[in-house]
Design goal:
The chain is of the alpha/beta class. The chain has one domain (8-283): NAD(P)-binding Rossmann-like Domain (Rossmann fold, 3-Layer(aba) Sandwich), CATH 3.40.50. The chain has eight helices and seven strands; from the N terminus they run αβαβαβαβαβαβααβ. α2 packs parallel to α3 (59-69). Bound molecules: ligand 8Z2 and NADPH dihydro-nicotinamide-adenine-dinucleotide phosphate. Ligand 8Z2 is lined by residues 112-114, 116, 122, 124-125, 128-129, 132, 162, 171, 174, 205-206, 211-212, 214, 223, 226, 264, 270, 272. Residues 31-32, 34-38, 56-58, 61, 82-84, 109-112, 132, 136, 160, 162, 204, 206-207, 209-211 line the site of NADPH dihydro-nicotinamide-adenine-dinucleotide phosphate. Its EC number is 1.3.1.38.
């Protein structure tokens, strides 16, 4: 464990904002559940009474999450896959159907990127980020919707995105992918409303998770200057919002993007790569 994120005991010592039993009788599917926000979401869903489906590529990390949330006596299904493979996504939903029936809430949290000047992003890296964050999320959304349509019932999707309203220097690929997910979500929120399907996005700002380790430590420390609160957000602050938005408390919300970002969308200079002199205050002539 590094200095970032919360371990299982720390998560277990916290209390979700939503009432006990909020997800009782429901099945919540979480991608990227082996680490960071997804692992926190697994704690929250289990504590709120859900059957929980844990997905991601690395089965050992998923098993570890399953063991950690065993303390809440939830029913848990571990299903490793890459969301980039549409057939694997179909198999996932079949496995969920066999174990729990339809999922009620699908949380598309899996994703990531690497810091790079846009001009240097190699084609393979571009495709990895787009295929994961946009393509993978789309495969999950479409398959969930098809299953709900075929079962003659609705459902709820929450897509974890990022703050894309301003530029994101150093992560152009993820900015493009996440903006794509937001546009897609708003579009199918209309198309799938007649099916009783709600789709919303949660846009976290800078959140303390082990995922921060892919960035230069100096850049990460500087990131606390990218929001009005001047601090990292915490996993539980995202988990409370995602669970609220995914569950019945938000039944009149769809096509929404909820920012939980300490004000990053309104203020803050955010660089995941070295800031060019051009943008430094010192570069202004007297
Ligand atoms: C508010 C403030 C917010 C500040 C932060 C701003 C960011 C927005 C907010 C989000 C924050 C977070 O997400 S926090 C962290 C979330 N977690 C992560 O990002 C974890 C790291 N990311 C991933 O693992 C990603 O899933 C992803 C990048 C798509 C990697 O997917 P894959 O495993 O399929 O890909 P790989 O096989 O590893 O690599 C495929 C190619 O990608 C490129 N590539 C991969 N990693 C690379 C690297 N470090 N440097 C260069 N290039 C790289 C190479 O071309 C690789 O090809 P080869 O050269 O042939 O190998
Ligand atoms: N932390 C932050 O500041 C912010 C995070 N976000 C986003 O929130 C989400 C969670 O981030 P965080 O917890 O911080 O980071 P992590 O790196 O800890 O989590 C990302 C998760 O996604 C999973 N994943 C990646 N690629 C795939 C794939 N192809 N198929 C299935 N699962 C995959 C990983 O598991 P595995 O490797 O086992 O597959 C991992 O568990 C990500 O989408 C991230 O980009 C957005 C804004 C800010």
């Amino acid at each position: 464990m590094t200095g970032y994120g919360r371990d299982d005991d720390a998560l277990a010592a916290l209390t979700p904002a939503l009432r006990e039993g909020y997800f009782a009788g429901q099945t919540v599917l979480i991608t990227g559940a082996g680490s960071g926000l997804g692992r926190g979401l697994a704690h929250w869903a289990a504590r709120l009474g859900a059957n929980v489906v844990l997905c991601g590529r690395k089965v050992d990390r998923l098993e570890d999450t399953a063991a950690a949330i065993g303390r809440y006596n939830a029913q848990v299904l571990v299903h490793p896959l890459t969301i980039r493979d549409p057939e694997a996504v179909q198999d996932l939903f079949s496995a969920v159907a066999a174990r729990f029936g339809c999922a009620d809430i699908v949380i598309n949290n899996a994703g990531g990127q690497f810091p790079s000047a846009a001009i240097d992003i190699p084609p393979k890296g571009w495709h990895a980020v787009i295929d994961t964050n946009l393509g993978g999320t789309w495969h999950m959304m479409q398959e969930a919707a098809r299953r709900w349509r075929d079962a003659g019932r609705g459902g709820s999707i929450v897509n974890v995105v990022a703050v894309t309203g301003r530029g994101m220097p150093g992560v152009a690929h993820t900015a493009a992918a996440r903006a794509g997910v937001i546009a897609l979500s708003k579009t199918v929120a209309i198309e799938w409303a007649p099916l009783g399907i709600r789709i919303n996005c949660v846009a976290p700002g800078l959140i303390s998770t082990t995922g921060m380790n892919v960035y230069d430590p100096r850049a990460v420390r500087a990131m606390t200057r990218t929001n009005v609160m001047q601090r990292f957000g915490q996993i539980e602050e995202i988990a409370d919002t995602v669970c609220f938005v995914g569950g019945n408390a938000s039944q009149f919300m769809t096509g929404e993007v909820v920012h939980v970002d300490g004000g990053n969308q309104i203020w803050g200079d955010q660089w995941t790569i070295d800031k060019p002199d051009y943008f430094k205050v010192d570069s202004i002539d007297d």
